[in-house]
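Help!! Second protein's tokens look totally different from the first
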Amino acid sequence: MTSTERHSKELPLDPSRRPCPSSRLSRMLLFSIVGIAFGLPILVFTALVYVRAEQRNLERKRQIQQLGLMYHAFASERGKSPSSLDELQAYKPKGLLALSYPDDDNARIAIEIVKDGRLIIIWDAMFAEGGNESDLYVLGYEAHVPTDGGIVLLGGGVVAYQSATAFKAMPKIPTISDLGN
């Protein structure tokens, strides 16, 4: 018998031999560690993506809220709502309104999101006497809200997330041109 034949012969298995429970536990522990080693980075990455998305949502909400403040400051001082973005952009508040008016950087960003079509604003709005009543109406909304849901600026200045279905059920704020109809 050659050495190759000796090695190629299979050794008979002893039925009385069973795997050691500690080796089974070791394998389970090894698989758990490997699972954690690969799963934990995926979990952390997913959490970071979610946190960054929430930060972007908060930033967009803040920018839309700034535009709402500009719109309301204009309406408070002039007794009527702005009729266009150009009119709102040219407005510089006086007195106490100037203290709460957005700074130039926030105002610039808010105006840009309207200019590039990401935010739809209803011009010449007619506000109700109380802000709470005006919050029943839409004053502005992200362009994708009618189909996908998103951030909505309500007439009283509240900024909230609305689903596409809820948005479709909300009335838009009345405008001066609605008086003629």
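Here's the second one for comparison:
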Amino acid sequence: MSNAGPDPTFDTPMLNTGPDPKFNICGLLFRMHHRRVSGVFCVLLAFSAVPALAQEKRIGVVAAFPLDAGVFWQASERVALRADFGGSTTRTTYTPSPVRLTGSAVSATFKATSSSVASAGVSALFTIRNKDNLRLYVVPRAAVVFTGGSIEQDVFTGPALSKADAVIKNDSDITVGTEFRAMFGGQYRLHDRVAAFAETGVGYQQTSTPPLSTSVSIGGTTLSQSNQERQITSIGTRAVVGLVFFF
């Protein structure tokens, strides 16, 4: 028998069962491209959200009655804060009607009284519903109230008591009171920068009238007029309407 070599007809090359290097490179490039596109998309999405947040106006000034003026801040989606301040002055005048004092030709009568009230408060607005530009909320409010006043008197002398010889004016000390409110309100966004609101509820206020006194001496006769401090407590309904101008 002859020792013959392998038949070239059956001599087949070994098969490479591993992945083709060309396909490995293509897959790597595809994955790198996919990750890069995803990263760019996330960055663009994040930057696109910034203008939307910036366009939402959260801070504004308030013009209302009877709060007069204030500052508004939408702290979160459900909570807003509002600081307000205002004041008023009332003056009452009287027709002089002097009355002769017993045994004297000197008299005094009220000419005018004035009272001034100023308040500063803070409110917290808790949203209970917010849909279609309409926000419904409950709002507790606490405030301090400052009260002052003055008295003007005409002083008459002479037998006929027909001429005011002097005018005496005395200013009172300022007293401090408190006020609390529990309100329900609604705010409607008329424009991106303007909103209208209305509130109603109950309020409790405790203030005091300051003591006033006047004294004048004419011809050895002293005239004096005074009143004591009085505590005033009131409970009643309250209502507020106004606008918020955002910037």
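Reply: Different proteins will give different token patterns, so don't panic. Confidence is low (pLDDT under 50) at residues 8-17, 43-54.
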